Amino acid sequence: MSDELQIIIMAAGLGTRMKSRTVKVLHRAAGRPLIDYVVDLAHEISDAAPVVVVGHQREAVQQHVGDRARYAVQEQQLGTGHAVQQAIDQIKAKEVLILSGDVPLTRAETLLRLIEEHRRSRNALTLLTMNLGDPGLYGRIVRDAKGAVERIVEAKDANEQQRAIREVNAGIYIFDGGHLVSNLKKLSTNNAQGEYYLTDLIGMLREDGKRVGALLIENPVEVLGVNSRSELATVEGEIQRRVVERLMSEGVTFRNPSTVVIDSTVSIGPDTVVYPFVTLEGTTRIGTGCVIEPGVHLQNVAVGNDVHLKTGTVAEDAVIEDEATVGPYAHLRPGTELARHVKIGNFVETKKATFGEGAKASHLSYIGDAEVGADVNIGAGTITCNYDGVSKHKTVLEDGAFIGSDTQLVAPVRVGRGAYVGAGSTITKDVPPDSLALSRVPQKVVEGWAKQRRKKK
């Protein structure tokens, strides 16, 4: 799309109905702030960076959006017309498309249809409208006897007859740039809200003999704005539905799609099967041919191909390479890296630990601040004692080491290549390669003791 089209995004409001200290457009839906979806949409439509009108918490909004946009500041929130007035000095293009930063579901195809209709009809203004069974607080579209858009009446200014109108303003407009600039300066606050309404420009343009048109949108969900936590949940659900639909079209199987929580930033390869009640967040990337069982929760995890994540596995900021198996009920904390064919079993917790190819920790262990070599076997109940109350220390288990069950590895400590550690040992010193380390209290047997005890009872 030519840079003759300029886009303004209104994002100055706090969003009081959100009941939040965070400005509305920075609330997250499916892993990203609402404003991100609108800024990305603007870049799909126009080569020119959009102008974002900021107000409440403008520093936070600008810091997040960064150089993806230019900015105008609305110090006081005095209505939509007032918001666009703040960008008047930056309006240079032939056409101006106005969006809202809290409306993240609009598709590029819809905006392209709106632009096409605007140009085909040679309108001064073309707006999106929708039909709603319950129009609520939306502005009503009032048409003249010929069916042309005459004006928009805001809900609080509408009479009983106007409130019955089902066609409402969707809040997306494309203006002729020159007509927009000249008429913005004429807006007044003569209404119930005492605000500058952008919709008042319709009457002004018609009085000047200019054409005003409308495009009725087929699916109202595309222009759903977020004004409450409930609406945020609805928007997030729609984004997730779209993500799942796209992934299924690319070859991913979801056993029960409506139960999966998935961010828009997640990618999954074909032939992967995702079971119910899975949560996938952040920059999580899952390869091909994987199985993700129920209750798995991944955040910023890179998963290779043919990986099996069993029920209840939780992982964050971790790497899992091809053909690894994890779980059930394993916990991979940040800094965990599992090489090919690694097995991390039930109720194993890892943190800042690397596992070489084929290494195993199959049950009930804690491995933290550790370097585990290839083909190491870690028995049940093994723990790395990595914290001395002041500092963290590292445990190194070289290739092929065998660690017996219920072993305590008191870091810093190294177990050499091919060495064995007997079950129940507390290892405080380095173990040389190919040796056996034992640390046990000698077993004492008192024959007949239990029988004598029972007699005493």
How would you describe this protein?
This protein has 457 residues and is of the alpha/beta class. It has 2 domains: 5-223, Spore Coat Polysaccharide Biosynthesis Protein SpsA, Chain A (Alpha-Beta Complex); 229-437, UDP N-Acetylglucosamine Acyltransferase, domain 1 (3 Solenoid), CATH 2.160.10.10. The longest helix is centred in the middle third of the chain and has 21 residues, at 229-249.
Number of helices: 9
Give the full name of the CATH homologous superfamily of the largest domain: Spore Coat Polysaccharide Biosynthesis Protein SpsA, Chain A
Taking pLDDT < 50 over at least 5 consecutive residues as the criterion, the unreliable ranges are none
CATH level-3 fold name of the largest domain: Spore Coat Polysaccharide Biosynthesis Protein SpsA, Chain A
Number of domains: 2
Strand content: 25-35%
The assigned CATH architecture of the largest domain is Alpha-Beta Complex
**Main sheet makeup:** 14 strands, parallel
Protein structure class: alpha/beta
What is the 3D form? elongated
- Distance between the amino and carboxyl termini: 93 Å
Mean pLDDT: 95
Percentage of residues in helical conformation? 10-25%
Radius of gyration: 31 Å
**CATH domain class name of the largest domain:** Alpha Beta
How many strand segments? 39
Characterize this entry briefly:
With 457 residues, the protein is of the alpha/beta class.
Strand and helix layout:
Blueprint: E1 5-11, E2 28-29, E3 32-33, H1 34-45, E4 51-54, H2 58-65, E5 70-73, H3 80-85, E6 95-100, H4 108-121, E7 125-131, E8 140-143, E9 149-153, H5 160-163, E10 167-176, H6 177-184, H7 201-207, E11 212-216, H8 229-249, E12 253-254, E13 261-262, E14 267-268, E15 273-274, E16 279-281, E17 285-286, E18 291-292, E19 297-299, E20 302-303, E21 308-309, E22 314-316, E23 319-320, E24 325-326, E25 331-332, E26 337-338, E27 343-346, E28 349-355, E29 360-363, E30 366-372, E31 377-378, E32 383-385, E33 395-397, E34 402-403, E35 408-410, E36 413-415, E37 420-421, E38 426-427, E39 436-437, H9 449-456
